[in-house]
Amino acid sequence: MKRLGFVALASTIAITAAAPASATVLLPGGVGVAFSAFDASTRGVQLDSIQSGTTGATTYSGFLRSAVYRNTLGTLDFYYQVAITAINFGDEVYNLTSAGFFGYSVEALVDGTDFDGAGFFTAANNPNTQGPAGSTTTASRNGSGSVLRADFGANGLEGVGQTSATYIFRTNATGYDLGGTFTTQDGSVAQRANFQPTSLVPEPATWGMMLLGFGMVAGAVRYRRRGGKIVYA
User: Fold this and answer.
1) What is the tens place of the pLDDT at every residue in 131-175?
2) Where in the sequence is the domain holding 138, given as residue range(s)?
3) Which of 30, 49, 99, 104 qualifies as a cystine partner to 67, CB 3.0-4.6 A?
4) Main-chain phi, psi angles of 154, to 5 degrees
């Protein structure tokens, strides 16, 4: 039993140590987290996508674009982009939010390229007119962890033809459905049904605890008979 316990504990340590640390982790209650550049080599395969109009908004119009990719790690990435075709003078689309991520781990990534070619995602072209050059967009997450937000800062959309970068939230989810929401805001709000995660893969530490549990169970079922009675080792 001791040997099994040590093996399980060693497995736990090895698996946990193998999990890479990430500066982009977006925890519940997190505010002002910097997006990290997306590593295109981990993109994987697109599973689903939607482009729709800005239904509900009265001060601007355009397109809300989203997609789900299964990345090369085997989990799901959720993609979001906003494109403006008309906007009232003086207004500015200043964020996008997505709901339905309660209980999932999330990393905040950004891609400014036209990565899908003939698809509807396009390269970012919103000029930074309110501050020094470079992205000022940051990620936030509400206290329960359900709602994710990209706050554009000086990268807000305020002109016809402007398109945001594509913001990518990498999760530990393995399944998805259309039970979430995608929202953009300026003087009015556009919102529509969108993708959300539905099932998750255990974190490395969870796998380690499971292995440790298996080792304990294996030890407990070792027994010997003495005087007609079962005695556990």
Assistant:
1) 445 678 999 999 999 999 999 988 899 999 999 999 999 999 999
2) 21-202
3) 49
4) -75, -5
Please report the sign of the dihedral spanned by the C-alpha atoms of residue 113, residue 94, residue 194, residue 206.
Answer: positive
Closest to 126 measured CA to CA, from 75, 88, 165, 77: 165
Number of domains into which the chain is organized: 2
Of the candidates 26, 181, 200, 201, the residue with the CA atom closest to the CA atom of residue 109: 26
Tell me the sheet residues that pair with 96. 150, 184
Is residue 71 domain-shared with residue 175, that is, in the same domain? Answer: yes
Secondary-structure percent of the chain, ordered helix, strand, coil, rounded to 5: 15, 40, 40
The one-letter amino acid at 160? V
Q: What are phi and psi of 35, to 5 degrees?
A: -70, 145
